[in-house]
Amino acid sequence: MSAAIERFDRERIDSEEPRLNGAAFSAPQSDDWSVERYFAREDADPLSRAFDGKIAVHPGVGGRLVAPQEREARLEALLDEPRRGDSVAYIHVPFCETHCLYCGFYNRGYSREESARYVDALVRELRLWEGRAAQSQGPVHAVYLGGGTPTALESGDLERLLRAVRGHLPLANDCEITVEGRLHNFGPEKMEACLAGGANRFSLGVQSFNTKIRQTMGRLAPREEVFRRLERLKSYNQAAVIVDLIFGFPMQSMEVWLDDIAAACSAGLDGMDCYQLNVYDRTPLGRAIREGKLPPAADIPQQAAMFAAAVDVLEKAFYRRLSLTHWARTSRERNLYNLKVKGSANCLAFGPGAGGNLAGWFYMNESRYQTWLDAVSAGQKPVATLVRPDAHFYFFRAVAAALEQGWMDLADMENTFRLSLRTWLEPLLEQWGRAGLVELRGEKMVLTLAGQFWQVNISQLMQDFLKHELEKATKQ
After folding, report:
1. Which residues contact 437 (CB under 8 A, 6 or more apart)?
2. Which of 26, 380, 444, 460 counts the highest number of beta carbons within 10 A?
């Protein structure tokens, strides 16, 4: 699930408000604007009660949809421009052997017969923009095979796909190449195929080491098998191995969560990611809780306590924090894709439903599998959506990227973008400081532990507030 939070194609679910134990939350609206709309509670524990709930999954200000009749011409112009700055690539594999209860992105069941056909199509898509400046000029710093479950593909097809990526994209010498997946059915043959294809990072969706929780949520491998397969993958000593953990599952007490973290630490991995569970009504988990088949997920105070516990344990274990959710134990773990895609990096995207970004113009491939397959077979890049960026796209992405790290250099942001940032933010930062969410250390705004837990709210509210200030300054 490492990219489940990070990549653009996951924003398909943002139209449905996050729900925690049935309560829906929404961000402040623009009507009857007042700065108080952006304030947090001051009369409650900031870690657990600063806001009613999370108001965003992917904080941002969005853009304007390009009309279908204009899409092709605009895309053609973008393809003639070399990529500038950081770049990544995302390869989407939509297949899953099972539908995990908490997942809102399940797309297509897997069959062995589909593996070769799908990889054939992906290789064709990799060739469609080959020779165009937007794909061929400028290094690609990170590649992410996400899904779905990329490790569901057959071993020969995994290797073939990875070799095609290396052959058709201009990868940087130190390019991070991640294969996301699950450990069930990811045996030595597939591991070795990925390594032979050039994978140097594995992001594995363990989610919990507790066998009962794992199997209730649709993860098939029991705890013992998870450890065996992790040990085998590490034994090759050729790639970073990290796992995703989720806190807030039904039946996951604080004791179970602390055991999950301890188990990951004991496995000698290169790092781990710790994500908060979001429960959506339309997922199997949301329905099971609503129908009383499963107990409720952890509420906000419980999740806040789990977040704080994870930070405490991992800091004491001397893990290095790469972002608010990503932790490294060794220098092998860099987490480049996730860090770069949260900022303004270009993203070349391949596969049905995959989303990319060229100079701030976000595009999304056709998500319907057969439609995508037919278009690629006909030699057409199946772009279904193109979004024109906000005029201040790079500024807003810099804000989002800084808050992912838990701090922002206000003076540097002002100098870079020539904006009155500190003056604009003064009432907001003063109130958030009183509420226990931020601290000012010289020219730097730093999130407290409570602020880190509420980072998505702070990021979304700050961007909404700054958008209002920019619009007001433009009219003056």
Report:
1. 40, 46, 50, 447, 448, 450, 451, 454, 458
2. 460
How does strand 346-350 pair with strand 87-93? parallel
Q: At what angle do helices 300-316 and 254-266 cross, to 10 degrees?
A: 30
Q: For 196-221, how does the pLDDT look when each residue is reduced to its tens digit (9 = 90+)?
A: 999 999 999 999 999 999 999 988 89
Q: Are 417 and 398 in contact (CB under 8 A)?
A: yes
> Which residues lie below 8 Å from residue 142, measured CB to CB, with a gap of 6+?
88, 89, 175, 176, 177, 178, 336, 337, 340
In one-letter notation, the amino acid at residue 465 is: F
Distance CA 305, CA 323 (A): 19
Distance CA 359, CA 221 (A): 41
Mind listing the domains of the chain with CATH numbers? Answer: 38-56+392-475 (1.10.10.920), 64-341 (3.80.30.20)
Tokens linked to 228: 């065996």
